[in-house]
Amino acid sequence: MGKEAKTNAMRMLERAKVAYTPHEYPHEEGTAVDGATVARLTGQDPARVFKTLVTQGADRNYYVFVVPVEAELDLKKAAKAAGVKSVAMIHVADINKVTGYIRGGCSPVGMKKQYKTVYDASCLDKPTILVSGGRIGTQVEAAPADLIRVTRGITAEITAERP
């Protein structure tokens, strides 16, 4: 990858001495692609591709949740993991203001501020997972433990049960 192709997330991983593999996928400039499509375009198992969701708690603080792309965040479980009464998804229009990233390119690594970050516990049974590289069209693959360490995250069961 050329110097200009590096994202803030990649630079932060390098600074923390985290080994990662960048993956790029085709996209229309500025157009977000859903996670299942990202998994397909990168040739990855969707269970290893994680999306980053940003919420606001009843306490007005922001919380970040990282879940498999085909899973749904269970807001009750998420609130419990974050230690707050409730959480609600933030409005898409607020993503950039809160994280510094845009919809479809929101990485748990390298946000404007360090928010409490919770990874779905399913990440722990995988050698590596993919999360957004901080730009639409870019994913980074790294060991879950490294991503958790860099974001000072925790793990919990935070996805909805499949019917």
Structure description:
The chain has 163 residues and is an alpha/beta fold. The protein has one domain: YbaK/aminoacyl-tRNA synthetase-associated domain (YbaK protein). It has helices at residues 8-15, 35-42, 75-82, 95-99, 144-150; strands at 21-24, 50-57, 62-68, 87-89, 116-120, 129-132, 138-142, 154-156. A five-stranded mixed β-sheet has the order 4-2-3-5-8.
Write a short abstract of this structure.
The chain is of the alpha/beta class. The protein has five helices and eight strands, in the order H-E-H-E-E-H-E-H-E-E-E-H-E.
Rg (C-alpha, Å): 15 Å
Tell me roughly what share of residues is in helical segments.
Answer: 10-25%
Going by CATH, the homologous superfamily would be: YbaK/aminoacyl-tRNA synthetase-associated domain
**Largest pleated sheet:** 5 strands, mixed
Assign the CATH class. Alpha Beta
CATH architecture: Alpha-Beta Complex
Observed structural traits:
163 residues; alpha/beta; YbaK protein; 5-stranded mixed beta sheet; 3-stranded antiparallel beta sheet; 5 helices; 8 strands; 22% helix; globular
Write the layout of secondary structure elements.
Elements: H1 8-15, E1 21-24, H2 35-42, E2 50-57, E3 62-68, H3 75-82, E4 87-89, H4 95-99, E5 116-120, E6 129-132, E7 138-142, H5 144-150, E8 154-156
Parallel strand pairs: 3-5, 5-8
Antiparallel strand pairs: 1-7, 2-3, 2-4, 6-7
